[in-house]
Amino acid sequence: MDAGIATADNLKVIRDKGYHYICVSRERLKDYEYHNGNNPVEVKTQSGKIITLKKLKSPGNGSHYYEINSPAKALKEQSMKSSFEKGFEEGLEIAKAALSKPRGIKKIQKVHERIGRLQERYPSTHGRYQISVVEDKDRGVATDLLWEKIATREEEKKLSLGRYFLQTSMDLDETPNVWLTYNLIREVESTFKTLKTDLDLRPIYHKNDESTKAHLNLGILAYWLVNTIRCKLKQENITWGWSEILRIASSQHFVTTKGQNTAGFPVETRKCSNPIDDLKLIQVKLGISPKPYRIESKNKDVAQNAELKKSQALQQSTSPPL
């Protein structure tokens, strides 16, 4: 289940119906303990990255939790964190510089509004900063702007980089099974996301139930097609994602060439361009011809016959009468 709809009420409905679920927890767990001093289990992802899993003690709400630590995800989040902090601090620097300019924003209320807009722009960053506005109340203006990071919140943020929690109704003894199950869900979600992007299958355009049902049916059929192709390729040790397969496949084009022969009649041929090496590999593994649309237009034969008839007619007109 996607974390966006994994609310407590929805999870309860699923449990009451007798179904199991697994999702990313919507909340950041803080005060928790590991299950029996659970040692971390290392699992290799489909992209070759190593992550660690730890099972937590169940809080007694019908769910079991697993702590996930991903170094690759931590690097990505660290880069985003640094980028947001840089933008936030640059905004504070601009606001501070305006206090010493002749026509800069100095009124206390306006300065606070400016800081507020900056905080709205960086909602995940401003909470780790302590901001102080030095005021001259007699004149009603701000004279200085000071800020610093809150050490405890900064440390909490650093510890949370690359870490999230899986929530599931299944009490699995082997922790890697949870990750394998979750990876299956991620695979399905990734495929549907690609299909909706490439096929423009967006429910937002539907206005009645029948159209919505058709959308879901088409989405499932498309998923079966994609999954069949990827399954066959994986058996041949080709693990490209669907987006990458589409990118490679788009390198081959259907070329139509038009022209005129010497008799002035149109000639048209249609052929496929030569596939690149990666596409040829995919086609061979799937049993597809490297040039599946090798079509010769009938116009070519028609034009040749017409040219022949024209030539014969000219010869007859210049021949002496019997």
Structure, described:
By secondary structure, the chain is of the alpha+beta class. It has 4 domains: 3-70 and 162-189, no CATH class; 74-157; 200-248; 251-278 and 288-316, no CATH class. It is 47% helix and 17% strand. It is built from 9 helices and 9 strands. It has helices at 8-16, 71-98, 108-121, 151-160, 175-199, 209-234, 242-249, 277-286, 299-318; strands at residues 22-24, 41-44, 50-55, 64-69, 129-136, 141-149, 163-168, 254-260, 266-272. Strands 1-7-4-3-2 form a 5-stranded antiparallel β-sheet. A hairpin with a 4-residue loop joins strand 5 and strand 6. Helix 2 (71-98) runs antiparallel to helix 3 and helix 5 (175-199) crosses helix 6. It is extended. Residues 300-304 have low confidence and may be disordered.
Defining key terms:
4 domains, 9 strands, 322 residues, alpha+beta, 5-stranded antiparallel β-sheet
Give the helices and strands, then pairings:
Blueprint: H1 8-16, E1 22-24, E2 41-44, E3 50-55, E4 64-69, H2 71-98, H3 108-121, E5 129-136, E6 141-149, H4 151-160, E7 163-168, H5 175-199, H6 209-234, H7 242-249, E8 254-260, E9 266-272, H8 277-286, H9 299-318
Antiparallel strand pairs: 1-7, 2-3, 3-4, 4-7, 5-6, 8-9
